Each structure stands twice: as structure tokens, then as C-alpha cells.
Amino acid sequence: MKQLFFILMTLLLGTALHADPVDLSDQVDGYDVRLYTETTPVVGNNDFYVTITKEGNKVKNLKVKIKFFMPEMPGMPYMEYKAKGMPQADGSFKLPVNFSMGGTWQYHLKFKTKDDAVHKIRGSVTL
Description:
By secondary structure, this protein is mostly beta strands. The protein is built from one helix and ten strands; from the N terminus they run H-E-E-E-E-E-E-E-E-E-E. The strands form two sheets. Strands 1, 2, 3, 4, 7 and 8 form a six-stranded antiparallel sheet that branches. Strands 6-5-9-10 form a four-stranded antiparallel sheet, with no helix packed on it. A hairpin with a 5-residue loop joins strand 7 (86-87) and strand 8. The chain starts with a helix and ends with a strand. Residues 4-16 have low confidence and may be disordered.
């Protein structure tokens, strides 16, 4: 009976703790923005990617940056990580990010278009 309980708990926890890669979409000022990862985010180094389109066409001449942060909590200081987007051959932007701990990280994604307009999207990801 104890073995059956252990097997069921292992399966339940394994299913509950399984996380998928990030794939978030949003719109701002006529731009469609997709923030995604190819693998499940973990504590440590991660690669996020951003694809920005307008009217179905990828917009490439951009400056992209992201700030991930976790607010201060009792016994824990404010944490922040910033990254600048590196253009990729497929028109996306790579954002290398290092999470120092698990939990919910909020983000502000900003991109600047060639007309010097700055567009901002907010959201969160959970490790």
C-alpha cells in the first residue's frame, strides 16, 4: 500500500511540476509581439526570443531590450536582470537571461522602432 501511494505521489508531483517552454503573445500600437523560449526556463541561463511583426511582416530594424525583476519581499532583496536583443538570421531577437531563483518574474519588454517611438509590453513568467 505504501508503494502504491509513493508511485501515485511521484506521478502527481511529476505532472504538476512539469513546465512548458514560454510562448506569450501580445499587441501594442499595431505590432504583434511574441516572446518565447525553445526550452523550459530554469534557474540559471536561459535564451528568450522575441519576434515582432506588423501587418504580418517581421520588423527587423529595432532595438529590443527586456528587464526581468522580482519585487522585494520579507527576507529577500529586489532582484533584476536586463538583456539587450541580439538580431538573429530569422528576424527574431535573442535575449540571454539569467534567473537567480525560481518563482514568478515580472518583465518589461521594450522595443524602439526606426521612428524613435518606444513601445512597451509587461507580463510575467513563472519558473
